Amino acid sequence: MIKEKRNKGFVANLVLGIIFLLIAVGYMIFNYYSTDIKRLESNNAVYNGQSTVAENGSNLVIDIYGIYDEPIADIDGHNTVLWLVTFRDGYAALEAKENDKTIAQLIKKGDSLADSPESLTVTYYNANYNNQEQIENYSASLAEIIDSSSEIGQYFVYGNYVSLSQLQNDRRSSYIVGIIFCGLAAFFIVAAFFTKKRVNQAYDELYQEYPELNGSFDSLVSEAAFHDEKLKIIIYKHHLISDYRGLSVMNLNEIVQLYHYILTVRRSLIAVSRQSSLIGLKNNDKKKYSVPIKNIGKKTDDQLQDTFEYLSQHFPHIQLGK
Questions:
Q1: Cα–Cα separations (whole angstroms), residue 43 to 53, 122, 206
Q2: Please, are residues 158 and 148 in contact by the beta-carbon 8 Å criterion?
Q3: According to the model, what pLDDT value does residue 280 have?
Q4: I need a surface site. Which of 6, 67, 196, 304 has the fewest CB within 10 A?
């Protein structure tokens, strides 16, 4: 028995769209708070040189009291450089792009930073750790660049450094992920209203053509000329009907060609999803009219033979297959 369900397919798509939208919003909010200077400072996530207490790869705030106007080292494989910066208790290395706009602004401020330090959110790296993002052999490399007995070297932090470029990369990745989830949300929300419109049009077409079904839609199957429960196919008089993923209808009197189309979604060469539709073509009309049916795997084509046999007998004007 089939009951009238005008919201079939609409609610599921709408819920998925809202879920993806909430994920996108939550992801962006999390990214904002994880890099917000005031929030980090309130949690004592502040750079204190060798005394810094923070997890490797976490975000924190560094107050810049000065910066040398030329980079002190190029970082192989990172496409970045190291800038020598002054913090409250000494000197540290800041990783960034050579043409970074934030660095250019710091250099422009020059000596004024000593009286009005600039707070930056950066990613903290401990030289005792090693992961793909951080600089290899940092301490030993910097010891060759800055002599530990020099005036700067006596106050330079060799055991860790901070990275502006990594923070920017993480932000960029977060924005991309957020945009992807927003795109998925938009897709499912649009699909929800498109499905609702299609289903409503299908019901309206059926009721206009067959007034006897209005108010007694559950009699559709019992009075149908053909019904395939497995594929969710119904032929009622001269209409091909499917209640799979919302009602879809096709006027067979207008169709000149009908064939089975399978959309296969693959992941790593493995088919993870197959979606079937019956595609109908009309004379002098390039548009393809689609009625979704249930895909039951490799046996779908075999199961369709009964439908095609019925159509060949009762609608001989329709060319079956491509």
A1: 11, 15, 64
A2: yes
A3: 95
A4: 6
Residue 216: pLDDT band by 50, 70, 90 thresholds? confident
H helix runs in the chain, sequence order: 10-35, 37-42, 101-109, 138-145, 164-209, 300-314
Q: Within a 10 A sphere around the Cβ of 284, how many other Cβ atoms?
A: 5
Residue-level pLDDT at 4: 79
Task: Quote the CA–CA distance of 180 and 199 in Å, as a whole number.
Answer: 28
Count CB atoms within 10 A of the CB of residue 298: 8
Three-class DSSP category at 313:
helix
3-state secondary structure of 255: coil
Each residue's pLDDT tens digit, 267-280: 666 656 789 999 99
300-315: b or e for each residue (b if 16 or more CB lie within 10 Å)?
Answer: beebbeebbeebeeeb
Q: What are the residues whose beta carbons fall under 8 Å from the beta carbon of 41, sequence distance 6 or more?
A: 61, 119
At 210, which helix (H) or strand (E)? none
pLDDT tens figures, 94-133: 999 999 999 999 999 999 999 999 999 999 999 988 888 8
